[in-house]
Specification:
Layout: E1 3-9, H1 13-18, E2 33-38, E3 44-52, E4 57-62, H2 66-77, E5 83-86, E6 92-94, E7 103-104, E8 113-115, H3 127-133, H4 170-178, E9 184-190, H5 225-232, E10 237-240, E11 245-253, H6 255-280, E12 289-291, E13 298-300
Antiparallel strand pairs: 1-4, 1-5, 2-3, 3-4, 6-8, 7-8, 9-11, 10-11, 12-13
């Protein structure tokens, strides 16, 4: 994903950011700092990496979030001695130990290093695969306007400091930390085998029924399951070869919440899946199968 680097200068820059973001800006003296900015209701707006310069602070953010983030920071600036400007710096990144002039990624050791001195990035690295393997959520995929940073794992990723003092959205975040038990999160998800209909060759594949979560979504061919899955849930999944193995991050529920959700929705889910499968394969009666709505036992269509 393209990145944009903003430069924040002015004598009030440290205090200005300290009152807005989820992590301690003073830690930039020792390397990169991962942080986010939230709404007053504690919901995610943007996440970024910070590093200190001699006369400013560099803010490394996804390019699609940069204009909105700059506008948000300028809204809070008021009369503070702070200037915010975009730069032409292109972040570099690589795996392994950080070389001289680079900084270790604070989110996870396997994410390697980042640099802002114009050096090239390490080539032949599937960064999306590295991110998924280490359960690192990404803006626009797992992170969105309805995300809470603790459910997204920011505490594990060193993206929040509960001792730094107040910031926008801090009250909700602290209450989630100390007063409640998190019921949602993200975990790695691997499907060892494709669904029954995904094993067909593309030449004989029939269109899938529209996603039940988004009835207006355009049906996708069976040989491209990832397109339909992404319209169904905001997950990043990757298909490897014709076997249909899909990898990605999927929401995680606590045991109690999962059990309660399963008991409540099991029957409806079985009936819905049965109808979807029937709609997708109605022209091939010999291959159609379904679940019995009352016993949840698989049976072949006769």
């Amino acid at each position: 994903m393209p990145r944009t680097v903003l430069r924040i200068t002015g004598s009030d820059r440290t205090e200005f950011l300290q009152n807005l973001i989820t992590n301690d800006v003073k830690r930039t003296d020792n390397g990169l700092v991962y942080a986010a900015i939230l709404t007053p209701q504690g919901k995610y707006l943007a996440d970024f990496l910070l590093t200190a310069e001699a006369d400013g602070i560099l803010l490394d953010v996804a390019s699609d979030l940069a204009p909105g983030l700059a506008q948000r920071l300028n809204m809070y600036r008021l009369r503070a001695d702070v200037q915010i400007a975009a730069t032409e710096i292109t972040p570099a990144r690589g795996l392994g130990t950080a070389p001289a002039g680079a900084f270790a990624d604070p989110r996870h050791p396997d994410l390697g290093w980042r640099a802002y001195d114009g050096r090239p990035s390490q080539e032949d690295v599937d960064w999306d695969e590295v991110r998924v393997a280490n359960v690192i959520p990404q803006s626009g995929i797992e992170l969105g306007p309805d995300s809470y940073i603790l459910e997204a794992g920011f505490e594990r990723l060193n993206g929040v400091d509960f001792r730094k003092g107040c910031y926008v959205g801090q009250e909700v975040t602290a209450r989630m930390k100390h007063k409640t038990k998190l019921r949602k999160g993200w975990c790695r998800w691997i499907s060892p085998a494709p669904p029954l209909w995904a094993a067909r060759s593309p030449a004989t594949a029939s269109p899938l029924a529209p996603c039940s979560h988004n009835p207006a979504a355009k049906p996708s061919p069976i040989c491209d399951l990832t397109a339909q899955e992404r319209t169904c849930r905001p997950l990043r999944r990757k298909c490897h070869g014709q076997r249909g193995v899909i990898r990605g991050l999927t929401p995680r529920l606590s045991a109690s919440a999962q059990e309660m959700s399963t008991k409540k929705n099991k029957r409806d889910a079985v009936i819905r899946d049965c109808r979807q499968n029937a709609a997708a394969l109605a022209h091939k009666p010999n291959d159609l199968w379904q679940y019995h709505p009352t016993s949840n036992r698989r049976r072949d269509n006769e």
